[in-house]
Amino acid sequence: MSDLLKKIYDQESFRQQGHRLVDLLADHLGASLSEKNQVNHYKEPNDQLDIWKSFLGQDHSSIDYFSDIINGSINLHHPKYMGHQISPPAPIAALSALVTDMMNNGMGVYEMGGPSTAIDRLIPEIIGKAIGYNYQCGGFLTSGGTLANLTCLLTARAQLKDRHIWNEGMGDKKLTLMVSEQAHYCVDRAARIMGLGDDGIIKIPVNDRYQMDVSKLEVYYNEAIDKGLEVFAVVGSACTTSTGSYDDLESIGAFAKSKGIWFHIDGAHGGAVVFSEKYRHIVNGIEQADSVIVDCHKMMMTPSVTTAVIYKEVQDSFTTFSQNANYLFEKNQDKEWFNMAKRTFECTKLMMGVKFYAIIQAHGTQAIDAFVTTLHDNARVFADLVTEHPQFELACYPESNIVCYRLIDDQLDEDALNKLNAGIRRQLLEDGEFYIVQTIIDGKVYLRNTMMNPFTEKKHMERLLETLINYSNS
Question: Which of 35, 306, 312, 370 could anchor a disulfide with 296, C-beta 3.0 to 4.6 Å?
Fold first, then answer.
């Protein structure tokens, strides 16, 4: 073996670098929570590229490299982070990521990932219990909400009785699904990946709270039938990405049952609310769904990317990629739950469940309750501040931890207001004291806060509004 390889895998070198890295990250965490550093040090894309092009040609230690990555990244643990829907990871989960990266067991087959495979089974059952499912529920973990939604919709299609589409193809069958027009774009993308085309997704209008208008379901369903389409699924949002609105899951579930179609819930962001004693009622009806997805990396303190796919009846999960579901059940009663590649897109599957399991092993599921509840509480505090301020307006009062709002001025038309709010958001990005994002709703630019950090307090919210007003006057 070469001396270089011996150096790369040297035990003592790893120990020393590991200790220094943990110290570096611990110091970063402390500085973030005490607000001694900034949320962001934004650089233009080409400037960022130039930095890393030149970095390899310079003499830097590995710790220098790690330090530069930390300092150049958005700081999720800072109380002034109110941006995208990504959790500030619990430290214990970050430590578990070090373990999984070092062990690097791909989980396509059981013998390659024993402990993590068992954990991968348990987590969907734990979330399923919180949803309200019985002992027949189950599922697996996969790499993100987009892949999870696609998987569940493929499962829904596999339940059609008159043809095995996975084996025989679509033929002349014209399938379609129903979803809110405010649903995440990945549902539309899933329909197109499945070959359903423009007619394969029926977008239901929303009400004034940006929830699916369930009174329109029957009308749109009948129109689809008249066009020769077969509706095989309806998708509820818990919650929508733009406004954080939860659809009326009870009504959607009742509709799906009346039509005998699959009911799927995209709970990637807001599904974690099932763990909140205070806010669980928002998703009443979720237990009616045939399948639900929940991102652990959004409101459950887990590093990206970990998504739970949960089925009301776990046996449905084995039909997704099966050429003949009847053969599977007749000849293999245990269904080999432990060979994950039979049910997931991934063949080399990450040990993602270890991170979430570390949190509930150390702190219990009550930690998830505390986290989700705090974030929802914070959104309401901020929304009340916006409502009380004459220079701002809300898109709608928040149901989740997402708040959409904008600066208003009676002297400006809509185009000018859009430019004002977009310009202020850009200035905020470049200055780096806060990090928020923006969205477009009904052609209007809204500032958008996702209250992701439980250490965000009312004083930070007040300071943000003050800063936005100062920008608008400059």
Answer: 306
What is the end-to-end Cα distance of the chain in Å, rounded?
64
Q: Classify 172 as helix, strand or coil.
A: coil
Ordered strands of the 262-266 beta sheet: 138-142, 307-311, 291-295, 262-266, 230-237, 175-180, 201-204
Check residue 340 and report its DSSP letter: G
Please check whether the two domains, 10-90+365-474 and 105-362, share a CATH topology: no
Calpha distance 203→244 (Å, rounded): 18
Copy the structure tokens of residue 302.
């887990």
pLDDT in tens, 272-305: 999 999 999 999 999 999 999 999 999 999 999 9
- By DSSP bridging, strand 291-295 and strand 307-311 are antiparallel
Residue type (1 letter), 112:
M
Other C-beta atoms closer than 10 Å to the C-beta of 230 total 13
Cβ 155 vs Cβ 140: under 8 Å: no
Domain boundaries along the sequence of the chain:
10-90+365-474, 105-362
Averaged pLDDT, 45-54: 96
- The domain defined by 10-90+365-474 folds into Aspartate Aminotransferase, domain 1 (3.90.1150)
Enumerate residues 6+ apart whose C-beta is below 8 A from 316.
155, 159, 290, 291
pLDDT per position as a tens digit, 221-252: 999 999 999 999 999 999 999 999 999 999 99
> Where does 105-362 sit in CATH, by number?
3.40.640.10
The single residue listed with the structure tokens 């070959």 is: 195
- Give 334-351 pLDDT, tens digit per residue: 578 898 888 888 988 899
Helices (H) and strands (E) counted in the chain, each on its own, are: 17, 11
**CA–CA gap between residue 182 and residue 36 (Å, rounded):** 38
Query: Considering the entire predicted model, what is its pTM?
Result: 0.95
The full DSSP string for 357-378 is: HHHHHHH-THHHHHHHHHHHHH
Work out whether strand 444-450 and strand 437-441 pair parallel, antiparallel, or are unpaired: antiparallel
